[in-house]
Structure formats: C-alpha cells, structure tokens
C-alpha cells in the first residue's frame, strides 16, 4: 500500500459499521479521479454494499472493476482481498465453480494477514455451501494469524462463523462459547452491522438450546438494529421462520418467507438467499397443511440448490419435498427409497434433521405394508428419543410408537406416547405466552392420536378419557406467565387502544382508515412480539389429570367429554363412579350442522326472521343425534357438563332438546372444570358493573343491577376506560361487562370488548393478578374461540379460566341487544338467590318471552366453568 491510502481503506470496515455512509463516501471517492488503488477500494465497497443489500448484478460489475484496478495498481494483497469479496458474490449468485476459483487465486496471491482474511471468507462460503468440515478447517488456519495481529474485527467474525457452523452440526455448547467470545470483541468496536449479526446469531443459539422466547427476543432486537442501519434482513427472516415454525406459527412463517422472497426478487438480490427462503417457505407451508404450496416451493429450492452445488441444502429441501408429497397423499416404493437416501445423507452431514427423514421413510413403508423396511427406518429414527432438542426427541418417540403399533404392542405404543408427550410438556412450559403454548401442542398431535386409537381398540373408556385430556386444552393446565411491567409493552397497548378507537370513529363517520389500519397492524405485531418474549416456568406442567379424582368430584353431575378418533365422535359419559362410551357420528357432519345453526342464530337476532326458528330447532335435533346419541337416556336428572373438542366449540348446547331445561355448563377440558370447581371465591370480593359505549340499549340492565347490588362499583362513560376497568376487575367476586364484543379469528388474543378509550383485549386480561371469580360478558361473540395447535382454544373465555375465574357466561353468536337485557336481569336474580351461573342461566332462559328473538338469545349464551 502507498502512503495516504489509509483513509480510503477505512471505507472497508465502515461497510459493516455504517453501510449508508460507506456507500456515499465510496461514490465521492470515484468522483474525485482517484488512483487505481483508491478506485479499487471504492468499487469494492460499492460491490459489498450491492452484494449484501442491493442488486447482485451491479455488485459483480463493481467487484470485477475493483479486481482489474487492483491488478493495475500492482498490489498483490489488494487483488487477493478483492478476489475473496468477488468469490463470495459469485457464490451468492449461484456461480459456485467461478466463486471457488476466485478464492483459489486469492489464497495464492495474498500473504500473511490478507491470506487469513481470504481464508475466513472462503470458510463463510463453505458454510453457505453446507460444506462444514471445510469451513472449520479454513477458520482453523485463519484464527491464529488474526489473533496474533490483534485484528479484533476479523477475529470476531471468524469466531461468529465458527459458532454458526457448530450450530449447523448440533454442537450448541461450542457455538455458545464462540458467540460469547466474539461478542466481547464486538463490544470494543464500532461495527454496528456486525453487532446486529452477533445478536441474531445469539438468537439462533438460544433457539438451538430450546429457549424459544429468548430466541424471538434476540431476533427482534437484531431486526431493530438492522432497521436503524437501513439494511435488509433476509438471513434474519430465514432464522425467524425456523423459530416461528418450532413455536407452531407456520402460517406466520410462510408469510414472512414469501414477503422476503418478493423483496429479494424486486431488487435482484442473492440467489443463495432466495433458495434458502424458498426452503423456509416450503417447510412452513407443509407445517401449515398447504401441501401443494410446499411442493412448489421445495421443488424450486431443490433446483436452485443443485445449480448452486449446495448439496447440504439441497438434501434438506428434498426432505421437505418428500414430506409435502406424502402429505398430498402420494405413496410409493420410490418415495421410501428417496426418503431413506435423504436420511443417510443427512446423517453423514451430522444434520439434526436425519431422524425426521428416517421417520418419514418408515411412515411411507408402513402405509405400503412393508413392515420389515418400516422397522429398519423407524429404529434409526427412534434413536433420537433420548438426546437432542425437544422436537428431535418427540420425533424419536413418535417413531418408537409406530414401531410398537406395527409390532402389535399396545402397551409399547402407550408408553412411547406418554414419554413423547412428557418431553413436549417440558418444552411447552418453557414458553410464557399462552399463544405459543397452544400452538406448540400441535407437535404432539400424532402421539395423542395414536394413544387414543389404542385406548379405543382396548375398549377402555376410562383410558380413552385420560388420553383425550392429555392433549386437550393443555394451555389451560397452568396460568400463562404474567406480562412484565415492560414500559414498551404498556405503551404499545395504550397506543393500540388509541389507534383502534380512532379507526372505529372514522369508520362510523364514513372516513377512510387505511393509514390507521396500517398503524394498528404494526402495533399488533409489536404487542405480539413483546408477549412472545416471556419465558415460562420450566418443570411446571400444571396438574396431571386424574380420572378417579374427577369421578369423586362429580357427585350428581354428569360430564360428557366428546373425543374424536379417526374422524368419529365418541361420547365419554362420566358419573356414578364410572366412565361409559357411546359412539357418535361423523365430526365433519357435526361441524357442518353447527355452522348452519350459527347462521340461523345470526338471522334470529333480528326481528322478522321467525320462519327460521323451526329450521334451527331441527338442526339442534340433528346435532343431538350426532353428538350425544345413546348417552341421552343415561344423563339422569342432575347438572350436565359438556367438554367438546375444539372443532365443536361453537355448538349452542342449550339448543339440543335433551339439554334445554337442564343445568348446563361447558368446559374446554375436564381438567379445567375440576380446577374451576375447586377455585375458592375471593374473601373480600366485590361486584363490578361496566357499561361500554355504543350499545343499542345503552347497557340498560346496568342501572337495575346497580340497584340490586347496592355496593357495586359502576364504571360507565369516561370511567369505563381500560386502565380503570382492569384495576377494578382485579380480584372482584363478580364482574358484569355490557359492551360490544368482537372476535378476531385471525388473531384471537386481540378479540376485544369496546371500552370508552378503545378495545379491552385478551392481552390486557392476562395482566390481571387474579381475574374475577365470576364474569358475565353481556356481549356478542365473546364465547367464540379459535382452535389452534392440537386441540387448544384461544379467546376471551379461555384467557380468563387459568387466571382465577371459576365461571363465565358468554355468547357464541351475535345477539339482539334488547333481548339481552331481560336475560341478564333474570340471570342476576338467580345469582342473588344463591344459584350457580349454570343454574341461574337455565332459569333465566325459562323466564324469557317465547318469541324467536328471545329464544335465540337464550340459546346463544352459555355458562363456562363451574361457579
């Protein structure tokens, strides 16, 4: 190098400290008529910027120009450095052979310090190509030189890369050690982009260690850092997709991957990143049940990886492609061989995905009746059940369960299912957010279904009940972690209410709201992200369900749990010290009938639809035949508790003829009912009455209820604002909320009750230390729930039950505001006489006028829990 070149050379580290400023300065250098040496540096800086943040074709033009200028300057080290940068760009463009040839020339041309930096970048390329041993070898050669020269920036980069390779090989402890050492070095530098990358890498390490909340928090922090620098985040999107899928949020992962692909195509970005994003999208689509999208994305990823000579990545894409084709119903001997070949190759790479491929080969072989082949592949997959991260161990136990079933060992199936679900329970409870817990349960669906099938075949209703409870509403077995007093979260919730209220006011005035809606969606994403960062209490899996305890506590109550096995409903009637099973009908038929009933109730909420009443009642009789069948004559005269599967949560159970005049309550699970039954009311509880804005009747029942209770706290008008409402609800004995309710099927934890200052959402309720002992939601759609995960339900009602609420009255459909008033007054009259919610609701229905509107209103409301 010549004297005076140092200021220009400083532009190279600036690319990853302040990318925008580095680009601007490089362009300025080129406008000043620089020497070949300085022009080479400026073109290299612009090439790096375009390679990582812009158009790869433009990057290659700059880097080739930088290479030629370095040769003119007769600087071997300068030429070697540019050749390495060009090699990375060529590989990212899919020109792997040319890229590796550029590195060969760079290693030969450079000496000492420069050669070490070239080796580091070639190690990075080996990692991109999935050739991990070569990557570790080049890092091994580069690190001593970089350390000896006290080159902290490049030493930190090499350590970060080595850690990333260790993660790909499953060596999490080694990776964490290298990440920690690299971060100490980054703290001494101003390399802001590299620092963001280090945070992103720590997020990946946290994920590989099984800490999903920490992974999401760190990835969000990295995104914030990248945003300040104005740089794209394709690699971050790939990593976040992996974490989101592990958390059961496959549709969200698919949307993120597809959005990143669209952006990458628009700017002409790296072909290697596009292939990786396509792999992430195919994996997410397969997990989301969209086999055809998964096939299309995976097939394109396979072609791109093959063209890029990236065998490691291509093999993983082939695994997803075979899985998607299997999900689409394809089975063949060729697919068994392909899956087995993929498993063998993944094992040779040391990939954690190898057991999944062996399990796939075993599943296909079983479907074809090839039991010997299936046993061979499943035995390999089952080895992962004792070690590795939770998903790998669950995969291993699923393989063991299938082996036992093929061998005719029912006991072996149940043991494997129990062990696998125990692993999943431990993992699930590391998650603090109820949303993540619910979605994570999907990973155990196959194990639970296998156990139910075996229990049904054994003819043991008691055991079938136990296994139905094992995977039903597990999110309710322990309270979610309370959100911390995070100022950013609280600020986000306040801003969300304000924006939602402004949008609602604008809609009522007929004004456009696109800007407000965009801001509302942004705030939703922020709130969702913040709550997902909460960790859980590992080891606290909640109360284990005990059939004997349930039967002891039932007394004269009859509990009917509806289990679904292979698409058929089975009624498990619990009471009188025993569990009896009755065969029901098709789940699909029952779901379709329930939708017809809901449509009828919506129509009956408006006067003039009386002609629909006989049709709705007829549908109720058909639902009874499908869902209760032979259990009806055995119900006895006492109270009845219905425990439906998630797919049937919208059935208006009081419409069924056998249940209309009964004391009837609904529960997401038998475990949840037991907990509600054993929940004591607060010793110094008080009634709270809340009247939200915009009701057609103005919440006409509230003044009458205020007179009835005398000492009740009444919140209305400006007093009915969310912070005040939450403060009064905390620890109340009884809460009555008359407000407009909205259910969000797309995001159930943003289902809301409208207060004076905006929506009161589920995330708000989860901040209560103890939710009211009894809650009456005099609102539309407050009992609607979203079925997610294995058989989990998310919504207002299920948010309240784990937080100390023993009983809820809510509606599963839109209701007539005027007809709600007499129902609510009659309900509270019964409570005043000492009745439970279910008893008071039955009497309130009977006291209503006999017209269609009032009958439909009574059927729409249900009592949940046991208070």
Automatic annotation (TrEMBL):
Signal peptide: none annotated. It holds the Pfam family CHAT. Transmembrane segments: none annotated. SMART domains: TPR. Residues 618-865 form the CHAT domain. InterPro entries: CHAT_dom (IPR024983), TPR-like_helical_dom_sf (IPR011990), TPR_rpt (IPR019734). This is Tetratricopeptide (TPR) repeat protein. It comes from Streptomyces echinatus.
């Amino acid at each position: 190098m010549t004297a005076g070149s140092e200021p220009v050379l400083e532009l190279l580290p600036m690319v990853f400290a302040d990318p925008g400023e580095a680009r601007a300065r490089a362009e300025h250098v080129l406008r000043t008529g620089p020497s070949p040496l300085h022009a080479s540096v400026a073109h290299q800086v612009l090439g790096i910027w375009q390679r990582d943040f812009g158009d790869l074709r433009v990057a290659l033009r700059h880097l080739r120009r930088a290479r030629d200028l370095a040769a003119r300057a007769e600087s071997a080290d300068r030429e070697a450095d540019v050749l390495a940068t060009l090699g990375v760009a060529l590989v990212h463009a899919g020109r792997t052979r040319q890229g590796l040839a550029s590195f060969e020339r760079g290693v030969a041309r450079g000496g000492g310090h420069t050669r070490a930096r070239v080796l580091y970048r070639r190690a990075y390329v080996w990692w991109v190509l999935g050739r991990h041993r070569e990557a570790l070898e080049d890092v091994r050669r580069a690190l001593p030189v970089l350390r000896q020269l006290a080159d902290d920036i490049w030493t930190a980069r090499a350590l970060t890369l080595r850690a990333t390779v260790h993660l790909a090989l499953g060596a999490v402890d080694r990776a964490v050690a290298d990440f920690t050492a690299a971060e100490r070095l980054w703290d001494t530098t101003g390399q802001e982009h590299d620092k963001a990358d280090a945070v992103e890498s720590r997020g990946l390490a946290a994920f590989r260690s099984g800490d999903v909340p920490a992974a999401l928090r760190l990835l969000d922090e990295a995104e914030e850092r990248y945003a300040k620098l104005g740089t794209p985040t394709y690699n971050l999107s790939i990593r976040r997709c992996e974490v989101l899928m592990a958390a059961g949020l496959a549709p969200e992962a698919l949307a993120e991957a597809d959005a990143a692909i669209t952006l990458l195509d628009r700017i002409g970005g790296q072909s290697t990143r596009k292939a990786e994003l396509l792999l992430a999208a195919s994996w997410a689509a397969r997990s989301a049940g969209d086999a055809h999208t998964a096939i299309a994305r995976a097939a394109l990823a396979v072609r791109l990886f093959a063209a890029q000579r990236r065998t490691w990545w291509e093999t993983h894409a082939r695994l997803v492609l075979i899985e998607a084709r299997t999900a689409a119903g394809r089975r063949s001997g060729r697919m068994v061989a392909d899956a087995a070949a993929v498993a063998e190759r993944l094992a040779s790479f040391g990939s954690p995905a190898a057991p999944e491929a062996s399990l796939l080969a075993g599943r296909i072989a079983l479907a074809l009746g090839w039991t010997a082949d299936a046993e061979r592949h499943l035995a390999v997959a089952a080895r992962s059940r004792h070690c590795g991260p939770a998903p790998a161990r669950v995969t291993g136990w699923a393989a063991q369960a299938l082996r036992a079933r093929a061998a005719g060992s029912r006991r072996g199936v149940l043991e494997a299912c129990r062990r696998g679900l125990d692993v999943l329970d431990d993992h699930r409870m590391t998650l603090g957010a109820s949303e993540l817990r619910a979605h994570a349960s999907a990973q155990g669906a196959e194990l639970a279904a296998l156990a139910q099938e075996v229990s049904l075949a054994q003819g043991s209703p008691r055991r079938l009940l136990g296994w139905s409870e094992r995977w039903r509403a597990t999110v309710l077995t322990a309270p979610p972690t309370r959100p911390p007093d995070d100022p950013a979260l609280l600020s986000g919730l306040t801003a969300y209410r304000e924006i939602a209220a402004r949008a609602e006011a604008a809609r009522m005035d007929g004004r456009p709201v696109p800007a407000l809606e965009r801001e509302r969606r942004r705030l939703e994403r922020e709130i969702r992200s913040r709550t997902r960062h909460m960790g859980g209490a590992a080891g606290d899996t909640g109360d284990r369900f005990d059939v004997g305890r349930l039967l002891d506590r039932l007394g004269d109550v009859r509990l009917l749990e509806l289990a679904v096995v292979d698409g058929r409903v089975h009624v498990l009637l619990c009471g009188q010290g025993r569990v009896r099973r009755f065969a029901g009908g098709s789940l699909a038929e029952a779901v379709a009938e329930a939708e017809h009933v809901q449509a009828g109730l919506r129509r009956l909420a408006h006067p003039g639809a009386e002609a629909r009443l006989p049709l709705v009642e007829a549908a109720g009789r058909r639902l009874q035949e499908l869902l209760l069948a032979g259990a009806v004559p055995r119900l006895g005269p006492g109270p009845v508790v219905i425990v439906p599967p998630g797919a049937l949560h919208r059935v208006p159970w009081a419409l069924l003829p056998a249940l209309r005049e009964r004391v009837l309550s609904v529960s997401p699970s038998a475990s949840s009912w037991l907990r509600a039954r054993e929940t004591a009311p607060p010793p110094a509880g008080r009634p709270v009455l809340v009247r939200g804005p915009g009701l057609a009747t103005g919440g006409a029942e509230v003044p009458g209820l205020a007179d009835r209770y005398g000492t009740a706290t009444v919140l209305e008008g400006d007093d009915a604002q969310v912070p005040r409402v939450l403060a009064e609800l905390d620890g109340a004995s009884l809460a009555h909320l008359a407000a407009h309710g909205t259910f969000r099927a797309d995001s159930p934890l943003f289902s809301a009750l409208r207060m004076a200052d905006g929506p009161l959402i589920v995330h708000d309720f989860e901040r209560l230390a103890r939710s009211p002992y009894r809650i009456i939601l005099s609102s539309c759609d407050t009992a609607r729930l979203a079925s997610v995960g294995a058989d989990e339900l998310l919504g207002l009602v299920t948010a309240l039950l784990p937080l100390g609420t023993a009983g809820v009255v809510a509606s599963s459909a839109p209701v007539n505001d005027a007809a709600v008033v007499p129902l609510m007054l009659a309900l509270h009259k019964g409570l005043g006489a000492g009745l439970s919610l279910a008893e008071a609701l039955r009497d309130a229905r009977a006291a209503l006028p006999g017209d269609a509107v009032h009958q439909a209103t009574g059927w729409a409301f249900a009592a949940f829990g046991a208070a």
